[in-house]
Write a structure and sequence with these properties.
The complex is a heterodimer of chains A (about 260) and B (about 350).
Chain A (H helix, E strand, L loop, with lengths): L1 H5 L1 E2 L9 H14 L2 H28 L4 H24 L1 H9 L1 H6 L5 H34 L7 H28 L3 H25 L8 H12 L8 H23 L3
Helix pairs in contact in A: 2-7, 3-4, 3-7, 4-7, 4-8, 4-9, 4-10, 7-8, 7-11, 8-9, 8-10, 8-11, 10-11
Chain B lengths: L9 H7 L11 E12 L2 E7 L2 E3 L3 E5 L6 H8 L7 E6 L2 E2 L4 H6 L1 E4 L11 H9 L3 E2 L2 H14 L15 H12 L6 E5 L7 H14 L4 E6 L2 H7 L2 E6 L2 E7 H6 L4 E8 L3 H8 L4 E9 L2 E8 L2 H14 L3 E7 L4 H12 L4
Parallel strand pairs in B: 4-10, 4-11, 7-9, 9-10
Antiparallel strand pairs in B: 1-2, 1-3, 1-5, 5-6, 11-12, 13-15, 13-16, 14-15
The chains are: A mainly alpha (about 260), B alpha/beta (about 350).
Chain lengths: ~260, ~350
């Protein structure tokens, strides 16, 4: 029979087993449900919509604002709003699959638990970066040009956007870890949202009582991003190292927890 | 507790069921030894030692909460044993779970799928865990599976709108999409109407051509229709494991059915008084009394029962030796293990 002759068994073993198929499915979820379009539109309205409004008011009433100010405004909205989106969007990735029974179903196939988690992280990261950050950055530059302001040099805006991607990776991995650690959505959604809402207070307290902690907080990374986009240099590598390290720790913890999970 | 059936003694079976990783072709696809699972101090499975013969349809029976699903999840590596061990095809179910799952198809009790996918997309997704190759060959395999479960006409509809029966049939299709050596089906016919049940049993018999089928159920009619070997589990303990004919044939005390017309009370009293009669139950239907008479001496029963009834003025319209059904055996064993309650 033709079918017997041409299909070959998948050979991937160990932690990679099933990763490719699961990644294809996760990408399919973004494309098939038009999630990419929804997210692109939401962040276009929330970030670039507000930036455009400010520019329009500035241009029509008090003259064109400085590009540096607009960069600051753009990155403030981008860094301030998108973590909420990431958390809301990915909070049910693990918990939802556990509750609906689909996790049990796919894990009964030759899919490793590492591949289950990492496929979600990779697909979500790629689509989040593309729709929430990169697309918005390109649109921002076009908006500046449309209002007659000089565009941000490609390298500078790319560096600023890359820093924002790293910032979102921190929230993605944190949510993934919480999803692998809790059975209900409450803590997965509540813990990071609570931190986001209280982060100004946390930063103030840290400045007053533990200044060494300040560069380790996610907000510090965002300041570096604004500086890079404005063509200034990096003042400290500590926020970068902290975010990378924390993202790795969160991912490793998520995998460790998920491997012990029973279905 | 003693039964006259092929009761599995835990100690004996432990000796018999040593995992045989060196010899996966020993005729058993599943072998467990003292498999135990405890949830928060409560034992869901107590020292299960089980052997599932290759190419059998193996019915795994037990009331709700007996430990059937726990056993299945242990075999699939979805949960970890508290103690004991198990192998499938000679591979350890805990340490070599991925290799085990490559050769197994699984249908959960309440199967869940990604609802944004269609039936065809679901099968494509599942098949790609096992196969790569030309799209056309993969699609041929998917079409075959859809045809087998008669979902061809609904293949491109989102699963969201599927009925319970359609979901179950899709479940059967996805479980066998890679033609596994072993199919594990957890209550495949539960919650289905008679037509749905008939379809599922038909598919199971189809699948037997390629695979061993291990399925849990509490629907005894289905077991008697399609299984060749059964195991009975209650409160986490294995009560019996044997080929179904052996279980039915070796089912302890004999009984006789007698149907009488007219008054049965005198006959009932006379028969009950015989020393070789261990119990009589009566059911009345359309003016006739049907007596089920349990005896300890079959010869005495065959020689004397009719004359005893006739002598009391009853008209005997039917008489014959009864045959224990699986339900009788199941109920007796489960009640026995529950302490008669």
């Amino acid at each position: 029979m033709a079918t017997e002759q041409t299909l070959t068994p998948v050979k991937a073993a160990g932690w990679l087993s099933g990763f490719r198929n699961m990644l294809r499915k996760e990408n399919g979820r973004w494309v098939g449900t038009h999630e990419w379009l929804t997210q692109s539109a939401i962040w276009m309205a929330l970030v670039n919509g507000i930036v455009s409004l400010v520019l329009y008011i500035g241009v029509t009433q008090s003259g064109a604002p400085a590009t540096a100010d607009m960069i600051q405004l753009f990155f403030m909205f981008l860094g301030g709003f998108t973590p909420f989106g990431v958390i809301i969007l990915t909070q049910s990735d693990v918990v939802g699959e556990r509750q609906s029974g689909t996790a049990e179903w796919v894990l009964s196939a030759p899919l490793s638990r590492e591949a289950f988690l990492l496929s979600k992280l990779v697909a979500n990261s790629a689509w989040v970066f593309a729709t929430m950050v990169l697309l918005q950055g390109v649109a921002f530059n076009l908006i500046l040009a449309a209002f007659g302001l000089p565009m941000v040099p490609a390298l500078s805006i790319a560096a600023g956007l890359a820093v924002n991607c790293l910032h979102l990776l921190f929230w993605l991995t944190l949510t993934l870890m919480l999803g692998a650690s809790f059975t209900g959505r409450g803590p997965v959604l509540g813990i990071p949202i609570a931190y986001l809402l209280l982060q100004n207070l946390v930063t103030q307290l840290a400045s007053a009582y533990a200044p060494w902690l300040v560069p380790l907080l996610p907000q510090s990374l965002l300041l570096q991003g604004v500086q890079l986009a404005q063509g200034q240099g990096i003042t400290s590598m500590v926020p970068f190292a902290a975010m990378v390290l924390l993202s790795v720790v969160f991912t490793a913890t998520a995998v460790w927890r998920f491997r012990r999970e029973e279905y | 507790m003693m039964h006259s059936y092929s009761i599995v003694n835990a100690t004996e079976t432990t000796r018999l069921s040593e995992p045989d990783a060196q010899n996966p072709g020993n005729g058993f696809v599943i072998e467990t030894s003292g498999l135990t699972k405890t949830f928060n101090g409560t034992a869901a499975l107590k020292g299960l030692s089980l052997r599932v013969p290759r190419n059998s349809i193996f019915g795994f029976l037990g009331p709700n909460g007996a430990g059937k699903t726990t056993t299945i999840k242990l075999l699939l590596g979805l949960i970890r044993p508290t103690s004991g061990s198990g192998t499938m095809f000679g591979h350890d179910v805990t340490t070599d779970s991925l290799e085990v799952r490559r050769r197994v198809g699984y249908l959960a009790q309440a199967p869940s799928y990604y609802t944004h996918m269609t039936a065809r997309e679901t099968l494509r997704f599942k098949a790609r865990f096992y196969f790569s190759g030309p799209v056309r060959a993969l699609e041929e395999r998917i079409d075959e599976a859809l045809g087998m479960v008669e979902l061809d006409d609904k293949a491109d509809r989102p699963i969201k709108g599927f009925s319970g029966g359609e979901r179950q049939r899709l479940g059967m299709a996805q479980a066998q999409i890679h033609r596994p050596d072993l199919l594990i089906l957890d209550e495949p016919a539960a919650n289905l109407d008679p037509m749905g049940r008939r379809d599922v049993l038909r598919i199971m018999e189809e699948l037997r051509k390629h695979s061993t089928v291990f399925y849990s159920t509490h629907i005894l009619d289905d077991v008697q229709r399609v299984s060749d070997t059964v195991a009975i589990l209650n409160m986490g303990e294995l009560l019996a494991q044997a080929p179904i004919e052996e279980l039915l044939a070796g089912s302890g005390s004999a009984f006789y059915n007698m149907t009488v017309k007219g008054g049965y009370e005198a006959s009932y009293a006379k028969i009950t008084g015989q020393p070789w009669v261990s119990g009589v139950s009566v059911t009345q239907v359309n003016g006739r009394a049907m007596l089920k008479i349990n005896v300890t001496d079959e010869q005495a029963a065959e020689d004397e029962l009719i004359s005893l009834a006739v002598g009391c003025g009853s008209v005997v319209t039917e008489f014959g030796r009864g045959r224990h059904g699986l339900e009788d055996i199941f109920v007796e064993m489960v009640e026995g293990s529950n302490g008669g309650h």
